[in-house]
TrEMBL record:
Alphabetically ordered keywords of this record: Acetylation, Differentiation, Fatty acid metabolism, Hydroxylation, Lipid metabolism, Mitochondrion, NAD, Oxidoreductase, Spermatogenesis, Transit peptide
Role description: Mitochondrial fatty acid beta-oxidation enzyme that catalyzes the third step of the beta-oxidation cycle for medium and short-chain 3-hydroxy fatty acyl-CoAs (C4 to C10). Plays a role in the control of insulin secretion by inhibiting the activation of glutamate dehydrogenase 1 (GLUD1), an enzyme that has an important role in regulating amino acid-induced insulin secretion. Plays a role in the maintenance of normal spermatogenesis through the reduction of fatty acid accumulation in the testes.
Cellular-component GO terms for this entry: mitochondrial matrix
Gene3D superfamilies: N-(1-d-carboxylethyl)-l-norvaline Dehydrogenase, domain 2, NAD(P)-binding Rossmann-like Domain
Enzyme class: oxidoreductase
Quaternary structure note: Homodimer. Interacts with GLUD1; this interaction inhibits the activation of glutamate dehydrogenase 1 (GLUD1).
Organism encoding this protein: Daphnia magna
Catalytic activity: (3S)-3-hydroxybutanoyl-CoA + NAD(+) = acetoacetyl-CoA + NADH + H(+); (3S)-hydroxyhexadecanoyl-CoA + NAD(+) = 3-oxohexadecanoyl-CoA + NADH + H(+); a (3S)-3-hydroxyacyl-CoA + NAD(+) = a 3-oxoacyl-CoA + NADH + H(+); (3S)-hydroxydecanoyl-CoA + NAD(+) = 3-oxodecanoyl-CoA + NADH + H(+)
GO MF annotation list: (3S)-3-hydroxyacyl-CoA dehydrogenase (NAD+) activity; NAD+ binding
Record localization: Mitochondrion matrix
GO terms for biological process, alphabetical: cell differentiation; fatty acid beta-oxidation; spermatogenesis
Enzyme Commission number(s): 1.1.1.35
Name of this chain's protein: Hydroxyacyl-coenzyme A dehydrogenase, mitochondrial
């Protein structure tokens, strides 16, 4: 199924539905108009892009102006790929789609100021509980009362992140997948305190940006990562035992199980630092679970600064962009 996913996107039906998504979401009376995405890395830039290309005003916030400039550039490149597909026979429309979408993107290094006018804040910063809590605590003091807060965390309990705020009824997990502009899924995580209004609003928002939503309780890894992360870690253990090479394990999972990427390609794509934070956090919290045991190879590569595609080397080497 996974291998055919991208193939299916190329069929007329999928293209029509992709277009319909864009059109529907643009014409929907939306409650969420102003979105702030905190963290302009791999995920933040993708989340900002899908909101902007669906007509919402988006501010991307990061600590580093260089990251923000890079995020804007990668959004531009990704939008060009989409525009080419959507409007392949109409360069005027393609150019308008690109410029309209880009016009919806603002950059900022000042989170407190950025959230001033926000309806929704989506956090996509480093996978560390205390850093996320500190950020939300600061934002809670300055954001408008109606603003909904969401974390894109891969593995941390939404309830523990929300603890740092006084708006648990307006707090959810919104877990996107990499690459955000292509992956259709959005996991929506509600904590016991999340109000029905908040839940309904973010479910609607998910649809408005062209995503298929699924709902999951606040459980480690939600649905996808609870299955995917142990699988990737087991692949590293297979490699560590010397049972097969990374290349052969990847080839096996692509050709034998139909995955679009093998586990090592996927680890490099997700980021080895992020993957390490996920497994370390779970190992600390659930030391009795053998699926969550840390893997030394991952720790070593991260120590060496080999974080995957984003640094040019992880399990494999990449040409720097
Ligand atoms: C860690 C977490 O918390 C959760 C996670 O995210 S886990 C990770 C989840 N993600 C995955 O599992 C990704 C698995 N990999 C894939 O699905 C695919 O390899 C891939 C979509 C990344 C790339 O697909 P590919 O066929 O190898 O490459 P490529 O031909 O470049 O791209 C396929 C299509 O997607 C488009 N595309 C890829 N990346 C894109 C991007 N960033 N923006 C816009 N379009 C993009 C391409 O233009 C191409 O479109 P056409 O088929 O219409 O030409
Ligand atoms: N990489 C992946 O495939 C996925 C990651 N996630 C989650 O998304 C979050 C972000 O991951 P990535 O985008 O991969 O990381 P990344 O490392 O690419 O980007 C994180 C960005 O956050 C910025 N940042 C850190 N602290 C900040 C702060 N206090 N204020 C503002 N900006 C800050 C950094 O400068 C960096 O640009 C993590 O929680 C991760 O677990 C979720 C789904 C998939």
């Amino acid at each position: 199924m996974a291998v055919t996913r991208m193939g299916l996107l190329r069929t007329p039906y999928m293209m029509a539905s992709f277009r319909r998504n864009l059109i529907t979401s643009n014409s929907t009376q939306m409650a969420i108009k102003n979105v702030v995405v905190i963290g302009g890395g791999l995920m933040g830039s993708g989340i900002a892009q899908v909101a902007a290309q669906n007509g919402q005003n988006v501010t991307i916030v990061d600590l580093d102006q260089k990251v923000l400039d890079k995020a804007k550039n990668s959004i531009n490149i990704s939008l060009q790929r989409i525009a080419k597909k959507l409007f392949k026979d109409d360069s005027v429309k393609a150019e308008k789609f690109l410029s309209d979408s880009m016009a919806h993107v603002t950059l900022s290094t000042n989170p407190e100021q950025a959230v001033n006018q926000s309806d929704l804040v989506v956090e996509a910063i480093v996978e560390k509980l205390n850093i996320k809590q500190k950020l939300f605590q600061t934002l809670d003091a300055v954001a408008p009362t109606h603003t909904v807060f969401a974390s894109n965390t891969s593995s941390l309990p939404i309830g523990e992140i929300a603890q740092s705020t006084n708006r648990k009824d307006r707090f959810v997990g919104l877990h996107f997948f990499n690459p955000v502009p292509v992956m259709k899924l959005l996991e929506v995580i509600r904590i016991p305190e999340t109000s029905d209004d908040t839940y309904n609003l973010v479910m609607e928002w998910g649809k408005s940006i062209g995503k298929q939503t699924v709902t999951c309780k606040d459980t480690p890894g939600f649905i996808v990562n609870r299955l995917l992360v142990p699988y990737m870690m087991e692949a590293v253990r297979l490699l560590e035992r010397g049972d097969a090479t990374a290349r052969d394990i990847d080839t096996a999972m692509k050709l034998g199980a139909g995955y679009p990427m093998g586990p090592f390609e996927l680890l490099d794509y997700v980021g080895l630092d992020t993957s390490k934070f996920i497994i370390e956090g779970w190992a600390e919290k659930f030391p009795e679970n053998p699926l969550f045991k840390p893997v030394p190879t991952l720790n070593r590569l991260v120590e060496e600064g080999k974080l995957g595609m984003k640094t040019g080397e992880g399990f494999y080497k990449y040409q720097k962009k």
